[in-house]
Amino acid sequence: MSNTKTVLFLEIVGTIIIILLGSALHFTYARSGNNPFVGFFSAVNESVWEHLKLAFWPSLFWMVISVLPLRKLVNNFFSAKTVGMYVMVALIPAVFYSYTAFTNESIFAIDIATFFVAVIIGQVVSYRLFRYKKLPKAAEIIAITAMILLAIIFIVFTFYPPQLPIFQDSITGQYGV
């Protein structure tokens, strides 16, 4: 299998894994008996913010799994993966708030489709950036820093969320755990 086909195959596998893990993470906090450690990675309520973790953490997991087989085959591994994750995390609320501005309500099927499409687009962005010319090493360091920063923000805001609509549970009206 050529390098291009190998990379494409792994990114398709990664897309499936991210979608499956993200879907599972929607339920793991409640099923864990509201274990705070599980809350780091799982949706702890029905806020838009908590649903972003369903794309981010599985993407980070896939990045860690795929670094060994992919890093030598592609350019800009960490930059590409970080940009892909940020695209996923940005698309979900952008689509949600855009369509709910017209419908005045959340539509479950659109929310699920948005998650799937955001993951696919994020993975496509990563794949495309893999093929871009090699960026300076500083770009990889900045990307890793941005990824770590987002992980920290997800953990902190799970327990200490700002009192903004994106963090408010749509069912209970509460914030965080």
Molecular structure report:
The protein contains six helices and no strands. It has one domain (3-167). The chain has helices at 3-31, 36-39, 48-70, 77-103, 108-130, 137-159. The chain has 177 residues and is mostly helical. The longest helix has 29 residues, at 3-31. The model has no long low-confidence stretch (mean pLDDT 94).
What characteristics describe this protein?
single chain; 177 residues; mainly alpha; 0% strand
The total strand number stands at 0
| Beta-strand percent range | under 5%
User: What portion of residues is helical?
Assistant: over 70%
SSE-based structural type: mainly alpha
Mean pLDDT: 94
With helices defined by DSSP (H or I, 4 residues minimum), what is the helix count?
6
The total domain count is 1
Distance between the termini: 47 Å
Explain briefly what this protein structure is.
By secondary structure, the protein is mainly α. The protein has one domain.
Give the SSE map.
Elements: H1 3-31, H2 36-39, H3 48-70, H4 77-103, H5 108-130, H6 137-159
Helix pairs in contact: 1-3, 1-5, 3-4, 3-6, 4-5, 4-6
